[in-house]
Write a structure and sequence with these properties.
This protein has about 120 residues and is mainly β. The chain has strands spanning about 5, 10, 20-25, 35-40, 45-50, 55-60, 65-70, 75-80, 90-100, 100-105, 110-115. Strands 2, 4, 5, 6, 9, 10 and 11 form a seven-stranded mixed beta sheet that branches. It has a four-stranded antiparallel beta sheet with strand order 1-3-8-7, with no helix packed on it.
């Protein structure tokens, strides 16, 4: 059983930054991959970035160079640093993991980028 709790969302203007956190109840080194997804109103939930338990990272093209996924093993926390935010980044952001053949989603945190 894994609990994932996102935090850090909010309302920002275009060009500003936010850092999202995903706090896990289990050692993140025991979870092969942790993912950030996002879902805008009326759209499907899309992958944003991922980090493996080896520390390797991947990003979708639309956020590459602006977003950085990282981790703090000591606190079992995965972060998503979001810079140069655009209105099209507006969405509910979720962290996700598969652990022992079960899927776990956090509750989501709202990010709104608007003037």
């Amino acid at each position: 059983q894994v609990q994932l709790v996102e935090s850090g969302g909010g309302l920002v203007q275009p060009g500003e930054s936010l850092r999202l956190s995903c706090a896990a109840s289990e050692s993140i080194t025991s979870i092969p991959i942790i993912y950030w997804y996002r879902q805008a109103p009326g759209k499907q939930r899309d992958l944003v970035a991922l980090i493996s338990n080896m520390g390797s990272t991947e990003y979708v093209a639309s956020v590459k160079g602006r977003f950085t996924i990282s981790r703090d093993v000591a606190t079992n926390t995965v972060y998503l640093q979001m810079n140069s935010l655009k209105p099209e980044d507006t969405a509910v952001y979720y962290c996700f993991a598969t652990f022992r053949r079960q899927n776990y989603w956090g509750q989501g945190t709202q990010v709104t980028v608007s003037s």
